[in-house]
Structure to design on (470 residues):
């Protein structure tokens, strides 16, 4: 049975790394002593060691140890033995490229589907969608494919941003970008605002946090859904 | 001799499509009656016909006809015969994918290098760089390669945005994204703000408009350059 928290962001404004999620992570990882951390999104180019240390500092608050996947000589075995998994944010292209290079995409998928508790934030949430094609990240490396884990039956746009009122910037809004995606693709997209997350328990996908999420379906007007909605029912 | 205008944006705040560039386009296309338009970035998923019509409306003000590359059965021949070329903005992944699918990347490059006057805006400017890896666009389609025309000896980031003061958004800033690019790549990147453009005349690459541009070199602090600077000299 799937058991995941898939969050828009690791950090909310004014907060510390993961702090707003910690009570929920205590529940998610209630039977986990050590979380296997996938650091390959490497935000700002940060090293895997430094990023793992950052995750460890946050998880100490709920009494969990954290080990980086990059420290194992056999990553498939490490994933299969993991009591819990966390993939951090950063650059989705880099993360996906590395998961393909290491040939662990399928193993990661199977473990999540089989119920290993999983936390994703930002890029680590993006990869739970069907494809990574609604990421906000720069294509800093050319991955072998844009296909991702398909834990969710739709794509995500984390850090979803509404158009800024009175903006003088002429670059595309997030909504326009997703419209461009839908001019070539028919996958549903959920725009997940910061401080929102999805909780997966088996087949139920609940929107959590205080905010609504924005749903984009091909050839339909986008609409908002309220917290606690089961997203499985609306796509 | 290269003869190009490579602009951050087609449209500046409060203005109409291309209007701020029209006097310069009169000069660029002084010996051009008909401009060949490459519409494949298809902003917002707009059709190639509608996009070509939009370009035509703007170019009427300087007495030029516009024809869409999509209307030719032999696009290589159309590019080779063109008196002037314009590639509009939109989604860079879609544009690059189409140029590869049509097998015209090399032909377009040769014509620009041989002196066919060229205008690029946004995605149409991005492709003048060495790779498209510093685009802001969503990966809505998987192109065969991220390599682009290499008319410029660096990459561009069009619509460059400074961090928003007091922003509560926790997504990466543009500068962080470019730093992530530089954690894996050593190509210089020019952050070109809206209302700025590059003028290429032979080997000289002049920054035009009223604003400074931001230069990002691997392992160096980013810095600003003033208008009229020849960017060839600083990378």
């Amino acid at each position: 049975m799937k058991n995941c928290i898939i969050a828009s962001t690791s950090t909310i404004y004014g907060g510390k790394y993961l702090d707003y999620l910690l009570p929920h992570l205590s529940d998610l990882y209630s039977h986990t002593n050590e979380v296997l951390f996938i650091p390959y999104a490497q935000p700002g180019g940060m090293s895997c060691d430094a990023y793992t240390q950052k995750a460890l500092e946050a998880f100490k608050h709920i009494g969990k140890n954290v080990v980086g996947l990059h420290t194992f000589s056999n990553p498939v075995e490490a994933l299969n033995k993991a009591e819990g998994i966390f993939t951090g944010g950063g650059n989705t292209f880099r993360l996906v490229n590395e998961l393909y290079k290491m040939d662990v995409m399928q193993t990661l998928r199977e473990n999540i589907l089989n119920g290993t508790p999983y936390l994703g934030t930002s890029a680590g949430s993006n990869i739970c969608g069907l494809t990574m094609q609604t990421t906000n990240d720069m294509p800093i490396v050319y991955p072998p494919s844009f296909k991702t884990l398909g834990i969710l039956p739709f794509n995500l746009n984390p850090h979803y941003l509404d158009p800024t009122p009175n903006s003088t910037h002429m670059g595309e809004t997030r909504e326009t970008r997703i419209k461009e995606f839908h001019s070539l693709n028919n996958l549903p997209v959920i725009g997940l605002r910061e401080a929102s997350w999805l909780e997966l328990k088996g087949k139920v996908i609940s929107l959590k946090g205080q905010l609504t999420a924005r749903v984009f379906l091909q050839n339909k007007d986008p609409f908002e859904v309220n917290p606690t909605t089961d997203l499985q029912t609306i796509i």
Q: What stands out?
A: DSSP finds seven helices and eleven strands in chain A. Chain A touches chain B at residues 9, 11-14, 42-45, 90-91, 93-94, 132-142, 145-146, 159, 161, 168-172, 176-185, 194 (CB under 8 Å). The mean pLDDT of chain A is 96. The first helix of chain A runs from residue 22 to 28.
